[in-house]
Amino acid sequence: MEFDKAREIFGMYVFDRRAMKERLPQHIFEALMASIEGGQKLDSAMADMVAAAMKEWALSKGATHWTHWFHPRTEMTAEKHMSFMSKDESGMPIESFKGKELIQSEPDASSLPSGGIRSTFEARGYSAWDPSSPAFIMMSKKGGTLCIPSVFISYDGTPLDLKTPLLKAVDAVETRSMRLLKLFGNRGIKWAHVTVGAEQEYFLVDSAVAKNRLDIRYCGRTILGCPPPKGQQMEDHYFGSIPARVLSFMEDVERDLYRLGVVITTRHNEVAPCQFEFAPQFADANLACDQNQQIMDVMRKMARRHDFQLLLHEKPFAGLNGSGKHVNFSIMDSEGRNLLKPSSNHRKNIQFLTFLSALLLGVSKFHSLLRAAIASPGNMHRLGGNEAPPAIMSAYLGSTLTGILEAVEKGLPDDMPAQALIDLGMNKLPSVMADNSDRNRTAPLAFTGNKFEFRAPGAPQSIAGPLTMMLAAWAWGLETVGDMIESRVGEVDALDAALEAIKFAAAESRAFRFEGNAYSPQWHEEAKKRGLTIVNSTPEALALFLLPENRELLSKLHIMTDREVIAYYEIRLEQYIKTVEIEMGVLRTMIWEGILPALSKQILLESSALSALPEDARKEACSWSACIGRLGSLKTSLISASEKLEALREKMHALDTEERAAAITEEGLPLYAQIRQICDTAESLVAGDIWPYPTYTKLLSIS
């Protein structure tokens, strides 16, 4: 798309500050900005004026309906469309949208996950406008819908969404960041905002091929399939020339996202065949979360228009790289300074080290919470392979930053390495150079020069959950470091007090920091010695939410009450169970409707061909007879394993939630692996025109 055209359409479907200023009276606009920036509430009269302006703007763009657009705990978004159209007293049509409708709506909450917070018959739930994220229009072929970003709560006010905890976690970090900035003498700073950019990996496969795979349609991944002769062995797909058909898809996605005010800064081929990536420009954390959902939504719709099937599963194809969502984050102050960017000013560098150390202190103490936050049914297949971060949480800083922290921890020795990085106003430590260390793609959490990158979340996951837990840990670290500095101010200079806090954080986080290859088996042994949390299954990881220290952290920071933490755990555990149960049902169907009949056809074909040979030739065809016998053995083994799977499914009906999760993990997944091995062996022996499902070779070819 031409840049001139992109500028013309950019943000055209967003009720952003520009649109607000054009359509609102000045005093209303200023009151709304005060509400957005300072948390002040709008009175009902002002809300009516904002709603009227928003309605007229939306109608001018072709919208016919409005909705409170919210993030239930399904990892997706939800919406209930309401028409602008109504009738007046004389029965004539009018467009109506009032302030009370803008501020609050009442979607049915009965069938959205709550973790036992409310019963199914308790259907009432409220959505409430979040003015910090601008309203936008999602267009359709015959109109559009005004989407109003909102929080979602139950009848008693308990949050039922992912946005509310995120907003609280963001506030916890930002208020503690402002306190720390003031301790460093930054009196003119008005605000400090968490900024986020989430890289989105995904697969595209031809929809005409994918529709013949029941597992792709219902599970979003292949649950059986032989590896293709050529996968990613040649390492020629990564950053390669983008296929023309895919590039057309990307360009259309970017165009629609421009209209929503979302800038995609990077697009490229990823490692596996048919795998690609989008990376957006950074935005404030809450807006970035909303925009990531918009990106996924636009990608889904555009894929259908281009005859693609979009796969966001963490591991769509066995033996090939899976897809993650790398969440990059930092803090920006009102002067436009990145607080995680080293500086040429020694005072700012101590400030930078303080913010960095506060994060390390928090995540080292609450690393189990980070592991819980990225636990999902699909991520269990991705994490730990030599393609993605391991299931063991650790942080990578690079040798230079690590050397600085070690030097501070030891009391700044005179023999500091010459390549050291931070100018602290002391001869012992030379000046900073940004990006002076290599990136460690094996680390779940890595410092990349001016931000941290959390590489462990899965591709379909909302960034709200992992980001909430990351920010909770950071907020605790900022508060701890802030308390230490404040307690010493008056006795020593703030910079000296900060160095003492950095020294403490460096020592406390030493076990969590790892500079080596986190894929290596040696790291697992080393992590055990360091006392790091190591869990491999999703149920084990989700149970980490329930650790007393994690519950206490979220409760004390007012991010989640103890009741909400338990509910969040139960929701995610139920999602794990239901996901695997669906996969079990799909697997059984694919076996009995496709694979077993294919084996029978192949046996009949081979037996008939063997019988047609002359008798002497049949006597010499021992290997042929053995092949037929092997096909028969495979069918017998598959029937037996399938019956065991069905028995397990029946058994689980009588178990409670945690028992079902344990049965799935301990019995179901090994049985799954056994069945897949049989099916994949059968695929390698059955003729292509008999095998009932498109193979990996067909799926991973874009025409």
Automatic annotation (TrEMBL):
InterPro entries: Gln-synt_C, Gln_synt_N, Gln_synth/guanido_kin_cat_dom, Gln_synth_cat_dom, Gln_synth_gly_rich_site, GS_Type-3, GSIII_N. Keywords: Coiled coil. It comes from the Bacteria. Residues 631-658 form a coiled coil. GO terms for biological process: glutamine biosynthetic process. GO terms for molecular function: glutamine synthetase activity. Residues 162-595 form the GS catalytic domain. Pfam families: Gln-synt_C, Gln-synt_C-ter, GSIII_N. Residues 64-157 form the GS beta-grasp domain. Belongs to the glutamine synthetase family. This is Glutamine synthetase.
